[in-house]
Amino acid sequence: MEYSFLSELPKIVWMLIGIASFLAAIGLLLVLVDVPRTRRDRWQAFLFLAPALVLLVGGLVYPALRTTVLSFHDRSGEEFVGLANYVWMFQRPEILLVLRNTLLWVVFAPVLATAIGLLYAVLIDRSRFESVAKSLVFMPMAISFVGASIIWRFVFAYRPADQEQYGLFNQIVVWLGGEPRLWLLEQPLNTFLLILVLIWVQAGFAMVVLSAAIKAIPSETVEAARIDGAGAWQLFTRITLPSVWPTVLVVLVTITVQTLKVFDIVRTMTGGNYGTSVIANEMYSQAFQQGQTGQGSALAVFLFVLVVPLVVLQIRRTRKARELS
Amino acid sequence: MTPTKNPPRPGGPTGAGAGRGPRGGRGPRPSGAAARVRRRLSGSAAGLAALVIAVVWTVPTAGLLISSFRPAEQIRTTGWWTFLSSPDVTLDNYRDVLFGSANDGRLASHLVNSFVITLPSTVFVLGVAALAAYALAWIDFRGRDWLFLGIFALQIVPLQMSLVPMLRFFSQGVAVGGVQVLPAWELTGAMAFTNVWVAHAVFGLPLGVFLLHNFISQLPRSLFEAARVDGAGHGRIFLRIVLPLITPALVSLGIFQFLWVWNDLLVALIFTGGDTATAPLTVRLAELAGTRGEAWHRLTAGAFVSMVVPLTVFFLLQRYFVRGLLAGSVKG
Known about the structure:
Chain A: This is Sugar ABC transporter permease. By secondary structure, chain A is mostly helical. Chain A contains 13 helices and no strands. In chain A, helix 12 (about 280-290) packs antiparallel against helix 13 (about 295-325). Chain B is built from 15 helices and 2 strands. The longest helix of chain B has about 30 residues, at about 105-140. Mean pLDDT of chain B is about 80; it is low at about 1-30 and about 330.
């Protein structure tokens, strides 16, 4: 069947209808707010807040409570099973592997991404090519995890040893005299290769944020240290690092939260096979592919429990950072 | 007019901070010493390290881009680094993956889907968040601070927490004690996109309200007092005064939300229900990567089709993007 743009028209029309009716609804609401001459503040506030409240309560608050309840029920969601889903989570070897993988992600991805971002930010600070250099490393932030995963799958692509390699990684291995291998199938190495993709994406974020922090260090401080005879390394450990440390922590926590919820990379790189699954992927697989609503919900709740302390920490740090600046 | 202090602004990845000593440090001024340190720091070893990072961060993308323009036969048999010795360029991969048979991906259709999903999701969040943020900042009512805190706290909830019940809501409606209160959303055809719009709007709201509230609450009070004296109601003040003033914040949030939705896989995967007709690029690409993992002539071109839009937005509006990104660091 030939592709014809005509078949896209209904979607575009529906999109325009969607946007137009939304804007019309807002316009109507604004008119409604001003109509009654009494103009009670409470009534007006309610009208302004109603759309947000309906969406948030209906789409986030209630579902989150419901998921928590479901995590104590079986797959049909009707029979109460107590803590069975949580016991299942910590007993089944394959789920323990998922938890171990998530731990590996959390231990390695944030630290390495932040470290590389910081190193790069320091190295290129005020160099001639700074803005270009920044754009290069920051660029992966703009593309999707799916796109990034395809880029890296191509790097790790495998051909049998008697054929020419087209995956860069295996080609380098061959050039160095090694045997090409199916890297993404080798446990536990494959998990680290997946982690590499996240580092590749997040280092740019770390770099941009930390670069801004480095630029905020007063030049007088740097000069004073220099006059006192500090070398490049001392300058970094005594001045730069302590000055940007609060920002380093913010970046670390931010990337950790992202890492805990990583899904797309695992899905696209290996589909969660070959021992690479993580919590978010397992949650999807349990709840939406195997119909194990209870177990999937328990995994979601566990994820929530892991994220909460980090975000609380984050908010407190951000607030502190703002008070300082 | 810059009422923002929050979100923190780094001045963009390319922007240099203002109010610092002269760059480079020519001449015998005190900053010359600092410049020397910097020069030494970015000396040969440091320069090499930076170069290595830059190369590792660029080469994989470049390899994919080059490959996408090579004939399928060559992609299958030789590495892209041999491109210079046999520089054959073709657009066939793009033609196939965009307009070919449904098996090849037919990404043109999914490209449209991505737009159809992303644009309304962005507009919805901007509109609803702006309304809520205005009320929370400038209308007096009891419990206002608590409500703001509550919405703010919702940023903590991972969207995984709401996927199962939300999907049930769309497919089964709401029943209380066996009585159907709200019917199921049996949307078919193009109307099926509505589910994804609503889902993305929900997930984008806590951050959106928070960001816009930061911005709106710092507008000068005198502005509102003057308007009220003139007899304008909240509706008019919002439309005529607030909206034009918060345009920069709306742009930041809009870009951020746009890229987030465009690049999202999970939400689309669940709320388009695995239906190819409504799947955006990310979902279709992940599918192609799974089932046709070695069809690199399609995957390379397909990946770039999905990247063109975010990369364009990124390079054109880098500064806004960074601002939204920094402020949105706890989203998800």
